[in-house]
Design brief:
This protein has about 240 residues and is mainly beta. About 5% of the residues lie in helices and about 20% in strands.
């Protein structure tokens, strides 16, 4: 681990010869020019001692991922290595929140910036998303979109309706006097009595027909053959 070993020792009265004298200085120069990771002892060095003055100096080398044993605290923003024209990543900063933009030339955007920004498209969480502020959405209809609040759904006693609350809406052309709809995938409701809805005859534009729930996966309604209906169901 030793970086510097002096090869020659001189005592009082020693006649200094050029070779041993110069070899001592050569040992010093070699040691100074050979300091690298192999010369750093268990005490290590402090992050505060790393003070790069250029972008190149502030860039980690190597091709492996870096592992930090504890949390990373950042003053300012964290940016991805991508350029501004291709994408960026912020975690915190002057405008709060999270901004992730890897859309390149597309509209892939995730923005939760609190008072300094807005909530936009393509944000997903694998669990329950709790927001202390109003959540807004803006579906594109006829080429335009306008942000509007997404309302919560409550039971009569004021409690939340549940995490499986959802809406199913679609259209169908009737093939007889009774139309039966079979739900699948994420459209399925929990049981026969956990949802309700209606069907609207959009061929005539007038008749609203109540649905009759058969199970969590099926319901039916009275219909007129060959006419088109739009149905709407809501529940858990």
């Amino acid at each position: 681990m030793s970086v510097l070993v002096i090869p020659n020792t001189f005592v009082t009265g020693t006649v200094i010869q050029a070779a041993p004298f110069n070899s001592n200085f050569s040992a010093v120069a070699t040691a100074v020019n050979s300091i690298d990771n192999t010369n750093i002892g268990a005490a290590g060095i402090f992050a505060s001692q790393l003070i790069p003055t250029t972008t190149a100096q502030a860039t980690f080398g190597g091709v492996l991922s870096y592992v930090f044993p504890n949390a990373i605290q950042v003053t300012g923003s964290i940016r991805s290595a991508l350029s501004v024209s291709t994408g960026e990543l912020y975690l915190g900063g002057a405008t709060e929140g999270i901004l992730i933009d890897y859309g390149v030339t597309t509209a892939h955007t995730t923005t939760l910036l609190g008072s300094g920004g807005s909530a936009t498209s393509n944000f997903s969480i694998g669990g329950v998303f709790t927001a202390g502020r109003s959540i807004q959405a803006s579906p594109t209809i006829d080429g335009t979109n306008t942000l509007a609040p997404v309302p919560p759904v409550y039971l009569a006693n004021g409690s939340a309706s549940g995490t499986t609350m959802h809406i199913v809406s679609d259209t169908v052309v009737a093939a007889g006097g009774t139309t039966t709809i079979t739900l699948s995938g994420a459209a399925v409701f929990g049981a026969v009595n956990t949802y309700s809805g209606y069907a609207l005859n959009i061929t005539t534009g007038a008749t609203i027909v109540p649905i009759s729930t058969i199970s969590g996966t099926q319901f039916s309604f009275a219909s007129t053959n060959t006419q088109r209906y739009q149905f709407f169901c809501i529940g858990t």
